[in-house]
Amino acid sequence: MYFKKCTLLIGLLFSTSLCYSQDVEKLEKKAQKYFYAEELLEAAAVYEQILALDSENRTASYRMVICNALLDPRNSTMDDLLQYKSTQGKRDKFYYYWLGRAYFHQNQFKKASESWKKFLALDKYKSSVIISETQFFIDWAERAEVHHSLSENYEIDQLPEPVNSISTEYSPVFFSESNELLFLSDKGNEDQEEPFQVYHTIRSGGSWSEPTALKHFGRFEEKNANIEVVNESSKIYLYRGDKKGSLYSSHNNDGKWSKPETLSREVSDSRLESHFFINEQENTILFANRKKGKSADLDIFVSRLDGSSNNWSKPELFSEAITTELDEDYPYLTDNGNTIYFSSKGFGSIGGYDVFKSEYDASTNSWSVPISLGYPTNSIGHDIQFKINTNSNSGYFVSDRLSALGSFDIYFFHESNKIFLTGTIVDGDGLPAEDAEIHLYPSRTTGLEIKTMTDQEGKYEVHVGSEDNLKVEIFFHDELVHGERIQTPESEVKTMRKNFAIDQEKKLLVEHNDYHDPTYTDLDNIGSKFRPSNKALLSNLYFGFGKVELATSELPKLEPLLLVMKENPDLKVEIAGHTDNIGDGKANLRISVLRARAVAKYLTDHGIPKTRVVAKGYGYAIPMASNDQEREGREFNRRIEVLVLE
Q1: What is residue 620's DSSP assignment?
Q2: Phi, psi of 586 (to 5 degrees)
Q3: How far apart are CA 635 and CA 201, in angstroms?
C-alpha cells in the first residue's frame, strides 16, 4: 500500500512538473514573439509571468532588463545590462545591438556607436534589415556625439516640482518678465477623455507656487493642448477641436480671466489646427496643417487679418524655405516678425522634433535656411513649443528628454557665457586613460548633463558655463572611479585646464566571439530582423516514401509559414526540398524539387504572390545527418527548409 501511494505521489508530481514546464514553455514562445517584434511592453508583461513561475529563468531576466532599459531609460542604469556581458555577451549575438540601444537612450553616444560596431563585426549571420538599421544607428549616434559637443551659449533649467510632475506639462506661456506662468497639464486627470487643463503659477523668491487649475477654460485633448498669450492686450488664446476647430480668446481683468469667446468664423474655418501662434499685434496667425490627403507631413501656414474688412486671409504656406517632407510644427514668430522659431523632424534633426530658427531677409524677400539651436536646447528626444523673450534672450520650451520627470517637462532657457574646459586623465599607472567618460553637472542649472570622453592620449575638451561650480564624475570601464567639484572662472578667461588622476589601473579587456548561433530559426521568427539564421525547418512534414504530394492531414503544418508570409509582406523565401540517399540520384533530385513546389503551391494558392516564393530541390546533396540509419538519420534528411532571400 505504501509503495502504491508513493507511486501515485511520484506520478502526480511528475504530471504537475510537466504541466508547469509546458506552461513556461508556452509563455516563453509568446514572449519571444513579442520581443523580436519589438512590442516590448507586451513582452515585458509575459516575462513577468514567466519569472513569477520560474524566478531563476535567465533568459526572461535578461530580456526584462532590455525591455526596462528601452521602455524606461530614466529609471534604468547601464549596470543592469552590463552585468550580462560575460554571459549573454557570449550566448546572444544580439547582445551588443541591445547594449548600443540602451547606451543611446542614456545619451552615451560614443559607447552606443562602439557597441553597434562590435555587433556588425561579429562573424555570424545577420539579416540585411538589421545590418542596415544598425548602420543608420551608428550614423545617428556619431551625429549626436558631435551635436552634444558643440554646446550653444544657452543654459537650461528644468522647472522643479510642483510645476513639472510625473504627468505631462505642455504649452508654457509667461508674463511679468517670466515670473508668472500659464501651462497645460494632465495632472490628476488620467481617466478623462479630455485630460488637459490650464494651470497658473507664480515665481517668488526663486520658487514656484502650487499650480492652480483654471477650470473655466475647460478641458483639452492632448492634440489640442496649446495656448498663446498676447501681453499687450492681456489676452490668452486657446484652440478647441469642437465645431470643426475654433480659436477662442479670454481677457484678463484685475487678475481674473474671462470666459473664453470664439473668434470670427473666418478664423475657425481656416483649417487652423491646435499648434498655432498669434502675434502681439493680433493680426497674424501661424499654425501647422497637414497636406490634403496625407497622414503625415505637417507644414506651417499663415493667415493675416485685413484691417479694413476685419477678415482673415486664406491660409497659405509660410515659406518653402522651412518646409521638408517631414513634419514642421510649433511655430513662434518674434515681435519684429523677422525671426521664426519652429520644431521640425527634418533639416538634419538629431532627435524627433528639434528647434530651428530662420531669419527674414528684406532685400531678397526670403527666409534663410533654418539652423538648429543646438545643444542643450535640442536633444535626441522631442523638443517643442519654443517661445523666446527677445528682450532678455530667454524663454521656455517643452521636452521629453532623459531628464524629464513625466512624459514632457517644461524647461527655462537663458543666455550664458561658455569657456573651454580641457585637460588629461591618467590611470593608476600614470598612463593615459583612454575612453574615460566624464560627466559634468552644472550647479546653477538643472536638467543639464554634459558628457565627453578622452581620446587615445587621455585628453578631453568640452564647453562649460563660466563662473559655475561643476560636479565632476569620471567613469572608467563602466565604473565610477572619481568624483569632485571644480569652479570655473569668469567668462573673460576663455580656457580652463584641469587634469585628473584616477586610482583604477587599465584593465585587460578580452572580447569573446564564441556566440551561440543556432542552425535554424524558429519559424515564427523567420521574418524578423532578429532571426538567428536565414533558414527555418518545416519539421515533421510527412511525404510518403517516393511521394511528392502533401497529405491533407499535413496541410495545417504549413499554416504557421503562411501566417509569417502574410505578416511580413516584404519577405521573400526559397522553399528548399531535401531527400535521403536511398535510390537514384536523379530521381531524388526530381522528388525534392516536386516536394518544394508542393509547399510553394500551398502558399501561392492562399494568396502569397509567386514573386515571393522560389522552389528548389537539392536531392541528397546537403544531408544534415548520417544516412546510415533511419532514426535520427535519413528521417532528418528528408526535410523542407525555408530560406530567407536577402
Answers
A1: T
A2: -65, -40
A3: 76
What is the arithmetic mean of pLDDT over 22-36? 88
Assess contact for 596 and 616: CB atoms under 8 A: yes
Q: How far apart are CA 383 and CA 375, in angstroms?
A: 11
Q: CB under 8 Å, gap of 24 or more: what pairs does 387-392 form?
A: 387/172, 387/173, 387/174, 387/332, 387/341, 388/332, 388/334, 388/341, 389/174, 389/177, 389/178, 390/334, 390/335, 390/336, 392/177, 392/178
Q: What DSSP letter does each residue of 336-367 carry, written as one string?
A: TSSEEEEEES-TT-SSSSEEEEEEEETTTTEE
> Under a CB-based contact definition with an 8 Å cutoff, are residues 380 and 144 in contact?
yes
What dihedral do alpha carbons 151, 153, 157, 158 form, nearest 10°? -40
Instruction: Assess contact for 262 and 268: CB atoms under 8 A.
Output: yes
Identity at 277, one-letter amino acid code: F
Give residue-wise pLDDT tens across range 457-487. Answer: 999 988 888 888 999 999 888 788 999 999 9
pTM: predicted TM-score of the whole model, two decimal places: 0.79
* Cβ atoms 172, 166 nearer than 8 A: no
Return d(Cα 464, Cα 148) in angstroms, integer.
Answer: 12
Instruction: Give residue-wise pLDDT tens across range 580-623.
Output: 777 787 888 888 899 899 899 999 999 999 999 999 998 887 77
CA dist., res. 330 & res. 118, Å (int): 39
Helix (H), strand (E), coil (C) string for 3-34? HHHHHHHHHHHHHHHHHHHHHHHHHHHHHHHH
Rounded-to-integer distance, Cα 131 and Cα 140, Å: 14
> Residue 479's CB: how many other CB atoms inside 10 A?
12
Please give the C-alpha separations between residue 135 and each of 95, 114, 140, 164, 585, in angstroms, as whole numbers: 16, 12, 9, 37, 45
- pLDDT tens-place string over residues 518-564: 578 888 888 889 988 888 988 767 666 667 777 788 888 889 899 99
